[in-house]
Amino acid sequence: MDFDLSEEQRLLKESVDGLLKNSYDFDQRKKYGAEKGGWSKAVWGKLAEQGLLGLPFSEEDGGFGAGAVETMIVMEALGRALVLEPYLATVVLGGGFLRRGGSAAQKAAHIPGIIDGSKTLAFAQLEKNSRYDLGDVSTTAKKKGDGWVIDGEKFVVLNGEAADTLVVTARTKGAQTDRNGIGVFLVPRDAKGVSVKGYPTQDGMHAADITFTGVEVGADAAIGDPENGLPLIEQVVDDARIAMCAEAVGAMDESLKLTVEYLKTRKQFGVPIGSFQTLQHRASDMFVMLEQARSMAMLATMAGDFDNAKERATSVAAAKVQVGKSSKFVGQQSIQLHGGIGMTMEASIGHYFKRLSIIENTFGDTDYHLQRVADGSGLI
After folding, report:
1. pLDDT of 232-268, one tens digit each?
2. Is the Cβ–Cβ distance between 68 and 32 less than 8 Å?
3. Can you list the alpha helix ranges (DSSP code H) found in the chain?
4. What is the CA radius of gyration of the chain?
5. What angle do the packed helices 230-265 and 68-81 form, to 10 degrees?
6. Which of 309, 152, 161 is closest to 236 using CA atoms?
7. Checking phi first, is residue 159 left (phi over 0); if not, alpha (psi -120 to 50) or beta?
8. How far apart are CA 103 and CA 86, in angstroms?
9. Partners of 216 in the beta sheet?
10. What's the rounded Cα separation, in Å, for the pair 204 and 29?
11. Which residue has the higher pLDDT, 273 or 102?
């Protein structure tokens, strides 16, 4: 099997790497994080100008019809630069629901705005007691005429404070943990009855807790079947897990690079500490763990196109396990080898570890996905 990038994919990699190298160093990132919503509208515009926001969408919808490999390339680059902009929330998650389940009218209403950078989305799924169970939904969507009335609470909604449109999971029938009876709805963030409380997260990004109180939406707000939306949710969340695996590889790659550079410059007893064999071995172990994660991230990328949902879910879960283990090891060793400076807010290495830790715990931590692999179904 050929794992080399095509000429077009190499050009994409060079393009996104070049853009972020020129506009996204650690000091600039601090400034972007201080802007409203926690990210830079100017950088988002540059991503749009280079066509990165339109990559996964079909040519019929105004995009480029790119696949999972192209998304992997972009997410690795975003991970290396610790990018704050809501690519995952808007393009991968929000855009994923539209690509995979949206009607022609829904696509026409939202995708052009995503592609040109004028619209961002957020996926409102996590609830107070649901943890990692995508089928644990207590937020309700009740029929009213041709439309729906949504009531409930969602927590830690990435980009929820700045998003124009919320993609909300809500129960249309059944008990709280039934697999059937879950719908996916498009809700304007400024709709009457929507209350948003935004805050920064530990990795420097922004999220929000959102309350829906008698929020009325039309029949056209439902994406796909409002009584059988869980398979769509699982597929799009797997897309997000795959993207986060690639992002983590990029963050680990940069963490290793920064650590090796520090070992070459930091001196003790008159020599660089990188000359000490024990520290060389630790850096080598970091490299091995990084490459294991990279291999599994590639597997997950290929698994995203599997027709069999069970095979896809199990492969993605296996990748999330290895990436989680590698992220923890590489992050911890990076801090250890930097010493005390690695714990300071002024050093970028600690921020990489924070982002890796958040990725490890998003849409299922290592233990959760290890159980999914052991279960064999990938669906628990």
Report:
1. 999 999 999 999 999 999 999 999 999 999 898 887 8
2. no
3. 7-23, 26-33, 41-49, 68-81, 87, 95-101, 104-116, 230-265, 277-303, 309-338, 348-360, 366-375
4. 21
5. 40
6. 309
7. left
8. 23
9. 149
10. 9
11. 102
Do 254 and 224 contact (CB within 8 A), yes or no? no
Closest CA to 254 of 63, 25, 19, 16: 25
Q: Is 325 in contact with 289 (CB distance < 8 Å)?
A: yes
List Cβ neighbours of 40 (8 Å cut-off, separation of 6 or more). 31, 32, 84, 85
Per-residue pLDDT band for 380 (boundaries 50, 70, 90) equals very low
- CA dist., res. 93 & res. 44, Å (int): 17
Retrieve residue 210's tokens: 């959102």
For helices 309-338 and 230-265, the axis angle rounded to 10 degrees is 20
Quick one: which of 181, 165, 157, 174 has its CA closest to 38? Answer: 157
- For the chain, the first-to-last Cα distance in angstroms comes to 31
**Separation of alpha carbons 292 and 283, rounded Å:** 14
Predicted confidence (pLDDT) per residue in 200-220, tens digit:
999 999 999 999 999 999 999
| Dihedral angle of Cα 49, 52, 56, 60, to the nearest 10 degrees | 10
Q: At which residue do the structure tokens 């795959």 appear? A: 242
The answer to whether the beta carbons of residues 369 and 318 sit under 8 Å apart is yes
Structural domains in the chain plus CATH codes:
7-119 (1.10.540.10), 123-228 (2.40.110.10), 231-375 (1.20.140.10)
List, for residues 289-327, the tens digit of each pLDDT value: 999 999 999 999 999 888 888 999 999 999 999 999 999
- Count Cα neighbours of 157 within 13 Å in the Cβ-side half-sphere: 32
Whether the Cβ atoms of residue 153 and residue 209 lie closer than 8 Å to each other: yes
Give 119-158 pLDDT, tens digit per residue.
Answer: 999 999 999 989 999 999 999 999 999 999 999 999 999 9
Tokens matching residue 239: 């897309």
Provide the 3-class DSSP secondary structure of residue 197.
strand
DSSP letters of 118-143?
S--EEEE---TTTTT-TT----EEEE
